[in-house]
Amino acid sequence: MTFNQLKMAIYATYITNLYGFKLKLSNTAQEKKQLRIRYAHELLTKLNIHVNVLNKDKLPKDGQYLLASNHRSVIDPLIIELSVKETSLFGHWISKKELYNSFFFGLFVRNGGTILLDREATQMSTFFTDIKTCVNQGDSIYIFPEGTRNKTQSPLTEFKEGSRIIAVKNRLPILPIYIKSSANEILISSLKDEKKKRIVDVEIGDIIDYKDKSMSLEEAYTKQFDIK
């Protein structure tokens, strides 16, 4: 690890836990939204990474959705937060158990507006009940349908069936968002030299009706963004 990478790791740990504490003290969804935006802005600005939103006119200003995005980098949630910052949308991220217990992410994840997914659980009733509670509060659900970070050379890996089930069970239209740039490569290069400005392009897709059974969510997503 270079000195610059070490410096950034210390800074990221500090600011992540600082905002985790602030989120713990927040009382409303919109307070959490603004804190998440400020956190994302501060961390990405430090890395000199900027988000460029394509087809911004397709973003709904309000409402409830299952926001579905591809996932290749640890900074993807930050990218999504900045992509929808000009809307009133607030979503609870589906978060795996490992992040809840993480020294780096734990405090932030537990207090930032997330729903715990324990993939080792023998039954998923608690998970779906937690989602229903959040939806009944008027909030959206944010998810990476691939289930985990895509570390392959393919632009997209197989979607898990659970994403469509969440949308159907909660009658949530699906808001597809595609991080076009290789955010992980951009992050790695920024850690080596943050003086150079780097751009992450994010494309907003058309809303997908949760009742549409003409094709799978993965097929609809791939078709919208012309992913080969």
Written overview of the protein:
The chain has 228 residues and is of the alpha/beta class. The chain has one domain (3-224): Glycerol-3-phosphate (1)-acyltransferase (3-Layer(aba) Sandwich). It has nine helices and seven strands; from the N terminus they run ααββαβααβαβαβαβα. Helix 1 (3-25) packs antiparallel against helix 2 (29-46). The chain is globular and about 50 Å long. The mean pLDDT is 94.
Order of adjacent strands in the largest pleated sheet: 1-7-6-2-5-3-4
Radius of gyration: 17 Å
Number of helical elements: 9
Q: Give the uncertain stretches in residue-range form.
A: none
CATH third-tier fold name: Glycerol-3-phosphate (1)-acyltransferase
| Strand count | 7
- Which second-level CATH architecture applies? 3-Layer(aba) Sandwich
Name the helicity range: 40-55%
Kindly give the count of domains: 1
Main sheet? 7 strands, mixed
Overall mean pLDDT:
94
The CATH first-level class comes to: Alpha Beta
Query: What is the CATH superfamily label?
Result: Glycerol-3-phosphate (1)-acyltransferase
Using the alpha-carbon principal axes, give the shape: globular
Q: Approximately what portion of the residues adopt beta-strand conformation?
A: 15-25%
N- to C-terminal separation?
35 Å
Summing up helix and strand content along with how strands pair, one would put the structural category as: alpha/beta
Question: What distinguishing features does this structure have?
Answer:
Glycerol-3-phosphate (1)-acyltransferase; seven-stranded mixed β-sheet; 228 residues; 7 strands; alpha/beta
